[in-house]
């Protein structure tokens, strides 16, 4: 009689399967190691029994001589199980981060590039991985979110990431793999204690387990508790944040400054997460909070990788860094779809005429219906358009006459008397 896989592992996979809507494909992240090879083998059985589509994806980082052997093993295993395999070769750019972090970033970029939006990716991380993740986060001085480790379920870039075996020990998976005579590849770098996670795995965790046999389970449980606390904090913060918002990227700095420092930190991190922006390092965050009481006319800018924070007129703006604008000027016939350095201009001009589109330079004057000649700079000040946005406005010029001011792609701020600048885009005005 053929050996049977542990029912507990199959049950967890069936529970994970229930998290995926019918018609969506289950993908297995297959490295070729013990954990993912076992996951692929058992997931193939579960998906076959449930008549659910399943595929596998292998990321070849090209970082070691054994990389091709890993890829060949994954292909052989998939062929044996009748599973379609996608192999993605990635280039790992280590600039500004360690090799582990860079490889992880390249891996997830490959997932996003090859897995259709709406599908579900199963990852083989287990209880011991979770314990190591918590310890690494604690050693970095992480807050609640970092201490929560890896979530069982996460929505990311249109994909659903699931880790069905977070509650299962490494030893349980190893016993199951041996019992089923599953083959896998041993990664030679897994013994290299120059990597932080390997040092924890081979030197720290064995010592902890010797003194406290349930250490991995306890640490993973702590991560779960931290995850629940983080979810509650996120829910409360989202409700409070809604009362402070003055636009999609902007919150009331005066009201924010009236909160306690811990609440201020939580609210700013929550807004970053809502906007899919990197959360600030502690020192940058402290610098930002120290500026909340800046004068009304002050222009404060605090930056960290992937994000700009700006304070102006008692408003706090969080945004992705703005790219420098090239010199630009173009003739326009008033037809929608004109290409600009900020994308297509979804505005039409009536009556049609040949005009010039260019960036606002300062000194422009426009004649408005019932308001007469107005300085565009004064109009921008009155309307409260932030200084960095003023630089990215397009003016419609006929010789020295300003016919309109447009915020790309389709927000017409002002149009001269007798001129109709009509948005043709469905995008909301700001």
UniProtKB/TrEMBL annotation:
Descriptive protein name: tRNA(Ile)-lysidine synthase
Primary role: Ligates lysine onto the cytidine present at position 34 of the AUA codon-specific tRNA(Ile) that contains the anticodon CAU, in an ATP-dependent manner. Cytidine is converted to lysidine, thus changing the amino acid specificity of the tRNA from methionine to isoleucine.
Keyword Ligase: yes
Catalytic activity of the protein: cytidine(34) in tRNA(Ile2) + L-lysine + ATP = lysidine(34) in tRNA(Ile2) + AMP + diphosphate + H(+)
Family, as annotated: Belongs to the tRNA(Ile)-lysidine synthase family.
Sites where the protein binds ATP: 31-36
Keywords: ATP-binding, Cytoplasm, Ligase, Nucleotide-binding, tRNA processing
Origin superkingdom: Bacteria
Pfam families (UniProt xref): ATP_bind_3 (PF01171), TilS (PF09179), TilS_C (PF11734)
Annotated compartments: Cytoplasm
NCBIfam families in the cross-refs: lysidine_TilS_C, lysidine_TilS_N
Protein's organism: Vreelandella venusta
Keyword Ligase: yes
The gene coding this protein: tilS
Enzyme class: ligase
Entry's EC annotation: 6.3.4.19
SMART domains associated with the record: TilS_C
Predominant location category: cytoplasm
């Amino acid at each position: 009689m053929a050996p049977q896989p542990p029912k507990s592992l199959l049950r967890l996979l069936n529970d994970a399967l229930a998290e995926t809507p019918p018609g969506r494909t289950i993908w297995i992240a297959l490295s070729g190691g013990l954990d993912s090879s076992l996951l692929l083998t058992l997931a193939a059985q579960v998906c076959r029994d449930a008549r659910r589509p399943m595929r596998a994806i292998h990321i070849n980082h090209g970082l070691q001589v054994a990389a091709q052997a890993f890829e060949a093993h994954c292909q052989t295993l998939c062929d044996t199980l009748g599973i379609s395999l996608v192999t993605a070769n990635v280039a790992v750019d280590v600039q500004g981060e360690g090799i582990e972090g860079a490889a992880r970033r390249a891996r997830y970029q490959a997932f996003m590039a090859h897995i259709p939006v709406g599908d579900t990716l199963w990852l083989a991380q287990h209880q011991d991985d979770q314990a190591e993740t918590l310890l690494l986060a604690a050693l970095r001085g992480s807050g609640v979110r970092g201490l929560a480790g890896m979530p069982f379920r996460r929505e990311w870039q249109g994909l659903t990431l699931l880790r069905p075996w977070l509650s299962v020990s490494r030893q349980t998976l190893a016993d199951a793999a041996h019992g089923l005579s599953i083959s896998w590849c041993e990664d030679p770098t897994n013994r290299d204690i120059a990597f932080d996670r390997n040092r924890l795995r081979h030197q720290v965790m064995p010592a902890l387990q010797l003194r406290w046999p349930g250490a991995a389970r306890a640490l993973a449980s702590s991560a779960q508790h931290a995850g629940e606390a983080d979810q509650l904090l996120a829910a409360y913060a989202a409700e409070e944040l809604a009362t402070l918002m003055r636009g999609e990227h902007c919150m009331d700095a005066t009201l924010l400054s009236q909160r306690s420092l811990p609440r201020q930190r939580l609210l700013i991190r929550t807004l970053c997460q809502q906007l899919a922006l990197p959360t600030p390092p502690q020192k940058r965050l402290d610098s930002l909070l120290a500026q909340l009481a800046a004068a009304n006319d002050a222009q404060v800018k605090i930056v960290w990788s992937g994000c700009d924070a700006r304070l102006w007129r008692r408003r706090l703006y969080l945004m992705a860094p703005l790219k420098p604008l090239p010199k630009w000027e173009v003739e326009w016939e008033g037809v929608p779809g004109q290409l600009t350095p900020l994308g297509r201009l979804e505005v039409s001009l009536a009556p049609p005429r040949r005009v010039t589109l260019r960036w606002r330079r300062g000194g422009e004057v426009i004649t408005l219906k019932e308001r007469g000649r107005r300085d565009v700079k004064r109009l921008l000040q009155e309307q409260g358009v932030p200084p960095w946005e003023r630089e990215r406005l397009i003016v419609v010029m006929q010789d020295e006459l300003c016919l309109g001011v447009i915020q790309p792609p389709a927000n017409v701020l002002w149009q001269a008397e007798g001129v109709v600048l009509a948005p043709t885009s469905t995008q909301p005005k700001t």
